[in-house]
Amino acid sequence: MSELAMLSKAMFQERKDIIFSIIGGFIAGIAGVALFSVSGYLISQTVFAPPLYTLIILTSLVKFLGFLRSVSRYGERLYTHRATFSILSRLRTSFFAKLVPLTPGILNKNRSGDLLARIVGDVESLQHYFLRVAYPPLVVMMVFLATVLFTASYSFWIAGLLVLGMLMTSLVVPGIVLLGQRKIHERVREQRSKLSTEITETLYGFRDLKIYGQLAQREEQLQRYSASLAAEQQRAAVQLLRGQSMQVFVTFFVAWGVLTLSAYLILDGRLAGVFLAMLVMATQTVFEEAAPLAVLPAYKQDSEHAANRLTETIPSQAATLRSSKSESLPTDLPVSIEISNVTFQYEGEWRPALLNFSLQLAAGSKTAIVGPSGSGKSTLIELLLKLRTTTSGNIRINKVLINELDEENIWELTNVVLQQSHFFKGTLRENLLENADEHSDEELMEVLAKAQLPNVLLNQVVYEKGENLSDGEKQRLALARAMLRKRHLWLLDEPTSSLDYVTEQRVLKQLYEQASGDTLLLICHRLTGLEKMDQIVVMEQGEIVEIGSFKELMEQKGYFYKLKQIELQMIGESGV
């Protein structure tokens, strides 16, 4: 099916290990059948007191087959598991590479816990596709056909009985298991997804749940989800055990059938009695090799569902988000940006976030965008970073359409500070050195001083998501990271909103000095320090209502002038 295309591609890339595993599995299977067949024949021969050399040959053959079976089984396990782990590694890498360009839009469609369950749980479920679905039937059929040909040389009736038993093992028993597993597996996946989602949200919102006294209720809810998942998994396990029990029943049924038929053929003179034990032992062994077929449909259904969920996570527009990489931009020069009649509307929203938006940023220019919350300012930066795609209109960087650029090239030439910056668990030094550039401790301390963090230590521990940092410290640390990159396009979204007035002015001064020859786009609510901007864009409801320099907008006494007067009044009242 189409959902398994990425898995098939990953399997093809591991074809060498897969071929070795198939060879090892076939040798192990046929050696096992031969081992027990020779053992049965040896037992029968001892009754007739054969020559000593016959016993020596048969005993040596039994030892050799036992050794061969052990070695080939080890090789089979080695290559099958190595192929499986390599396939999973390729799937994770491929899936994550497709997922990254869709962020953050995909986070608005999927709850983070459900997305985590898909990235981890569903990818892990695909390990069964090769081990339990694709690989066993091929090896079992090869071993079975060889065994049937071997038994047919003694009796076509016994060979026909083996074929009948194999049809029951490969079709009837798996069909019964599949009918019982279909609904159970759907409930297991549903409960697993719910539990993963609720656990993730509980961890994210632990503080708020504790403050508002809802933690106990959430814990009870998690326990209910966990109990439901355990109950459904138990039902699924019982169903699989039923399938395996039916497989054992079929094995003994066929073995007794072979024993009875062989006895009849011996009495009828069409089969030598010395071959009775050999044929019975061969029958039992070959059907033991077929045991994985009983649970194959359940694993196949689970793998297909997991692949389908992964495919659904990556929508069709993922291909359009990734560019042809036919164009690239220089990282050592400031760039120009041209936005022409861009409209963007979030899925499910009744009005567009941007409507026929047009703006030009000359290379080396400084532009500020102001306006109330929800006016589309942050959306504009996400479009420039190719985190989202325009509904209509064009964006050009250095006169190249953004659709023709690789998003990684855009990120490489840009210093970005978004409203929410992520910090990893580690030291302050590790969180500063996120890019590939090398920096000495002196350079790090210098840039921290520019960001007004002169008294921190580079070995200071930073918790996950910067939990031990204040909002102001997070913003200054994010600015310090951007300053270290020394790129020539700055996209800043409320970089100083959590700083006090004095600290903000000092940080902006250092920022303007470093970006003096660069192209800079600053989104802000505060209107302080905008006198140095080449142009100020005032937005409301996704449209430009005013544009001009600080002096021009103040002289017009329009929307921007009123916002500035309100800010001055608030600053005066606060005594700053």
SSE blueprint:
Elements: H1 5-13, H2 15-47, H3 52-99, H4 105-109, H5 112-125, H6 127-152, H7 156-204, H8 206-211, H9 215-267, H10 276-289, H11 296-313, H12 318-321, E1 337-344, E2 354-361, E3 366-370, H13 377-384, E4 392-397, E5 400-401, H14 407-412, E6 414-417, E7 426-427, H15 428-432, H16 441-450, E8 461-462, H17 471-485, E9 489-493, H18 501-514, E10 519-523, E11 535-540, E12 543-548, H19 550-556, H20 559-574
Parallel strand pairs: 3-10, 3-11, 6-9, 9-10
Antiparallel strand pairs: 1-2, 1-4, 4-5, 7-8, 11-12
In short:
With 576 residues, the protein is an alpha/beta fold. The protein has helices at 5-13, 15-47, 52-99, 105-109, 112-125, 127-152, 156-204, 206-211, 215-267, 276-289, 296-313, 318-321, 377-384, 407-412, 428-432, 441-450, 471-485, 501-514, 550-556, 559-574; strands spanning 337-344, 354-361, 366-370, 392-397, 400-401, 414-417, 426-427, 461-462, 489-493, 519-523, 535-540, 543-548. The two termini are 67 Å apart.
